[in-house]
Each structure stands twice: as C-alpha cells, then as structure tokens.
Design brief:
GO biological process, one term: protein transport
Shape: rod-shaped
Largest sheet: 5 strands, antiparallel
Protein name: Preprotein translocase subunit YajC
Organism: Ruthenibacterium lactatiformans
GO cellular component, one term: plasma membrane
Strand order of the largest sheet: 4-3-2-1-5
Order of helices and strands: HEEEEE
Strand content: 25-35%
Distance between the termini: 81 Å
Structural class: alpha+beta
Membrane topology: Single-pass membrane protein
Number of strands: 5
CATH topology of the largest domain: SH3 type barrels
Mean pLDDT: 86
Number of helices: 1
Helix content: 25-40%
Number of domains: 2
C-alpha cells in the first residue's frame, strides 16, 4: 500500500464509523418510534378512548379509512379528525372488574 492510500483510509474510516453510529443512535430509533405510532393509530376501534394532539379527549364513535369521529363530553359532541391527529389511545376494556367481596 502506498502512503496516499493509507492516509485516505485513516481519514475516511472514522467518518464512516460516525455515519454508522449516527444511524444506530438516531435514525433507527426514530423509525421504530414512528412504526409504533402508526401501529397505534391503525389499531383504534369504536369505543376506544382517544387523546388528540390538540388535547381533546373522547371516545371513538365511528371510523373511516383515514378519519375517525370523536365523541366528547356529556352532551356527546361529535368531531371528525384525521388518524394522524391521534396522540394516545386508551383501549376499551371488555373485562369486568373483580368483585372485592369475592376475594374475601
């Protein structure tokens, strides 16, 4: 190997290493987080509790392809949102709570 080739390798190997580290510490976790958010948004069902990115809280009344209708408050106001506006999903629990007298 000539001195030029060795010098070039010494220059580019740390740079390539930094790019690999950047991928594993920044890009890969971000893609994983985006996939989890997309899975959460696609798993909503009628009756689930939703919090939107604007802070509106309610229950899902109906779902279409890329939108859903959120029912809020005691007066049952209905609003239509895009799926990307979901921040958090609280799944509807079909389990009944255990009777406290049954455990005694």
């Amino acid at each position: 190997m000539s001195a030029e080739t060795t010098s070039m390798l010494v220059t580019f190997v740390p740079l390539i290493g930094m790019v690999v580290l950047l991928y594993f510490f920044m890009i890969r976790p971000q893609k994983k987080k985006e996939k989890q958010a997309a899975d959460m948004r696609n798993s909503i069902e009628v009756g689930d509790g939703i919090t939107t990115i604007g802070g509106i809280v309610g229950r899902v009344a109906s779902i279409k392809e890329d939108t859903f209708v959120l029912e809020t408050g005691s007066d049952r106001v209905k609003m239509r949102f895009k799926r990307w506006a979901i921040q958090d999903v609280e799944k509807l629990s079909l389990d009944t709570p255990a009777d406290s007298s049954a455990s005694k």
